[in-house]
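Appendix B, example 12.
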Amino acid sequence: MNKDTAIFAGGCFWCMVEPFDQQPGIEKVISGYTGGHVPNPTYEEVCSHTTGHTESVEITFDPSIISYKQLVDIYWRQTDPTDASGQFQDRGDSYRPVIFVNSDEQRKIAENSKEELANSGMFDEPIVTKIEDAKTFYPAEEYHQDFYKKNPLRNQIEELGGRQQFKDTKWKK
């Protein structure tokens, strides 16, 4: 299997795993933290909003089966790209929407996709999701991994708490 990685932040990492994990060509999706200045942060430290980290997911994928562009397209459907202050009920810098790129090619794909989305007329507000260079990714504690499998009812509640409502109302059909 060819392998590449993608890192996306879009609110609570619990809700970011399942949409990617279900795709062909995905080897694994890990919940974690990136973008900050403290090595090996804990969940409690990230929640304190003092480490600079953003909750995110690191996706290991086979680009011969699913492209980075396809992953970016899935990402846009999981986030509110017009909200820089967090996502849905999750507020603050640790929940901001960011595409973390690890190559010039990923940056080009992400920037082109963001421009296409901005020009699509799908949103009345500007697209504010940041595209930043990938930094060290730290896996979250084990109890955060595969949350949707371990806690299906709570995951459904989280989903209904904002993401699904957003998808149903803000995305123009």
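The first strand starts at residue 4 and ends at 9. The first helix runs from residue 14 to 21.
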